[in-house]
Write a structure and sequence with these properties.
The protein has 128 residues and is α+β, with helices and mostly antiparallel strands. It contains three helices and five strands; from the N terminus they run αβββαββα. It has helices at 6-25, 88-98, 122-127, and strands at 57-60, 63-70, 73-80, 108-110, 116-121.
């Protein structure tokens, strides 16, 4: 589904290295501070999460992805750059590009209309 550009490939590697390092160090992966200047009129809470530049998020084609830590779970949020609805399959494709080594059986998926959410144990990502 994706043909990665060199910049996208490098960014994915950087983000995943940051996630692994934070996990191994026991550091909490927090969402970036909210920037009201980047909000979109009519937006709902989940669409502009991670729009601010940060070490745990990036873009892949028409999609934005953002990681955060939730207690013992790692949370991945996928949205579209144009804020349009996205299908569960689109979100799953992005998740698969970011974590191809993690079995889909170990990832809990919470579908939505404008954002897709994926959860897995931090230890599963590090082990993979």
């Amino acid at each position: 589904m994706f043909e990665l550009t060199p910049d996208e490939s490098q960014r994915i590697q950087s983000v995943m290295d940051n996630v692994r390092t934070a996990t191994l160090d026991g550091a909490t992966i927090k969402l970036p501070p909210y920037d009201p200047d980047r909000s979109v009129p009519g937006d709902f809470a989940g669409q502009t999460i991670g729009i601010e530049p940060n070490p745990f998020g990036g873009t892949l084609g028409a999609y934005r992805y953002q990681f955060e830590g939730e207690e013992d779970l790692l949370h991945l949020i996928v949205t579209r750059l144009d804020f349009a609805p996205l299908t569960p399959e689109e979100g799953q494709a992005v998740c698969g590009m970011l974590m191809p080594e993690v079995s889909t059986a170990l990832i809990w998926f919470k579908p939505g209309q404008r954002s897709q959410h994926f959860y897995l144990g931090h230890d599963e990502l590090v082990r993979s």
